[in-house]
Predict the structure.
Amino acid sequence: MYRSVFRPGLFQGQVAVVTGGGSGIGRCTAHELASLGAAVALVGRNAEKLAAVRTEIVEAGGTAHAYVCNIRDEAAVQATVAQIYGEHGRIDALVNNAGGQFPAPLKDISAKGWEAVVQTNLTGGFLMARECLNQAMQQRGGAIVNIVADMWGGMPNMGHSGAARAGMVNLTETAAFEWAQYGVRVNAVAPGYVASSGMDAYPPWMAETIRSMPSTVPLGRFAAEAEVSSAIVYLLSEAAAFITGTTLRVDGGRPNVRPGSPMPAPRHGAAPFNGFHLAVTPKVLQGEEDRHAGA
Ligand code: ADE
């Protein structure tokens, strides 16, 4: 079973939509929410991955359903949210987690590549949030968490993603203001380097860069997926009832590194919290146990 730090039954009777629920942080968060009683609607493009996560959750005693949807497609988002609302009768939580990018310096990014990344990481999240608000949350409130990234100060070789995710932070702030009147809270979580399946999506030439990431983080390691999930779950929970419009960094202090201040090696490290019983070590980090969060 998932070892959540949160109270059993915290989300009992609630419906949570998790985009990008077929892998990585989305899969982990879906498991944690289901373990706390939520019925989870897994949204993503890949039917097989969604079905596999649904099976995992059901085998763990939870409730989950899969909805294949390309979040870049406005009509598909409208229809998917209508289907989820129709089948469940409510939507209490949205985790806008689906995302993705490809590494490239700005000078080599075509308009098509730029648009694709912005649509996935900004427009798609906006559409999901707008539809959950208009179709469901306007009536009885809710909570939205947008997953962004550690793009503070720029995101070299991922400029399209950094721009989109910075846009998402600002969207979070506007939506927090506009939707507070409906009892809808809107926050964001900005993960740093997470030991997650997403790392295996990058080309082989990035492997050494990926493996050296912990040396650039004051806490000296990768995050476990469960450390991001617990931040998301906190912001969705009643414990965060007065928090809206904020972005919670989960990055081991990486943006606080300053050129000219040598990084002290962590003496004890910071022990990872890994509550996810089905966490898998990304292939690129296998054999690196002492340098990552220890899936
Ligand atoms: N995950 C990554 N990109 C996605 C998209 N366009 N739609 C749904 N899930 C996604």
